[in-house]
Specification:
AAA+_ATPase; ATP-binding; binds adenosine-5'-triphosphate; ATP hydrolysis activity; 255 residues; Rossmann fold; six-stranded mixed beta sheet; alpha/beta; transport; P-loop_NTPase
Length: 255
């Protein structure tokens, strides 16, 4: 399934948050959205996910959802959103419960996503026993369990320390390389954007407009921290954002 955003604009009261967004989200690719604080990145993601309706413009879904898809648009949040009273497997089972799957099919899905995220031996652990990185792996496994058409990822690594972020980025690359998924990935972190994004959309400060779309052709599996080509892309993104980020920062401090 592909998504097409056409002339999307959004206001909260008198404040225009997003303006004239035209964007194609292609199947099997990771699209990153970067931009200064408050430029409307999370709002855009909520509109893509149908959690909020744009003031004007449209989000069109084209093409079929994947076979066995139980939830076409599935979120992964920064704060993991795990139920503390459910085990790892129980948290994953939760998203399958409404779908009346036969028990063996449900067990097979859970075993599959635990294996794909290297969590098999943690299936009976409780969230409180897990590090932040492991919690986010569980959240990723839970999202994969519904075989979404598009994963909507809102700063998924922001709550993690730098080393854990590196490990999770490697995990996401390995997951995508084995079975490409479609994702829209909002981040503040330009290093994440150049490691994970096939396309990177740079928004201006509020009201967010598309300033530039940067395409990176290097296969995800060949991208490594410290790669000069990636660093050049990152420097270009920062160049685009720098002045606007500073202005947005002042705006928030004065507001
Ligand atoms: N429900 C709401 N009601 C009113 N204003 C809102 C609401 N949600 C967001 N806003 C405002 O809309 C603007 C865009 O918010 P949004 O969270 O989408 O930006 P963002 O780019 O994701 O920000 P950040 O990078 O700081 O996470 C901000 O000024 C925010 O205060």
């Amino acid at each position: 399934m592909d998504l097409t955003l056409s002339n999307l604009t959004h206001r909260y009261g008198a404040t225009e948050v997003l303006s004239g967004i035209d964007l194609d989200i292609a199947h099997g690719r990771i699209l990153c959205i970067v931009g200064p604080s408050g430029c409307g990145k999370s709002t855009l993601l909520r509109m893509i996910g149908g959690l909020e309706r744009p003031t004007s413009g449209s989000v069109l879904q084209r093409g079929a959802v994947p076979p066995d898809c139980l939830n076409p648009l599935t979120y992964i949040f920064q704060d993991f959103a795990l139920l503390p009273w459910r085990s790892v497997a129980g948290n994953i089972a939760l998203v399958l419960e409404d779908h009346r799957l036969p028990g063996p099919r449900r067990d097979q899905i859970i075993a599959d996503v635990l294996a794909r995220t290297n969590l098999t031996e943690f299936r009976n652990a409780w969230p409180r026993q897990l590090s932040g990185g492991m919690k986010q792996r569980v959240a990723i496994a839970r999202a994969l369990a519904v075989n979404p058409a598009v994963m909507l990822m809102d700063e998924p690594l922001s709550a993690l320390d730098a080393q854990t972020r590196e490990l999770l980025m490697d995990d996401l690359v390995a997951l995508w390389t084995r079975a490409p998924f479609t994702a829209v990935y909002v981040t503040h972190n330009l290093a994440e954007a150049v490691r994970l994004g096939h396309r990177i959309v740079v928004l201006s400060r509020r009201p967010g407009r598309i300033r530039e779309i940067v395409e990176i052709d290097t296969p995800l599996a060949d991208r490594h921290a410290g790669d000069p080509a990636l660093e050049a892309h990152q420097a270009h993104l920062w160049q685009l954002m720098r002045d606007e980020a500073a202005a947005a920062d002042m705006e928030l401090q004065n507001g």
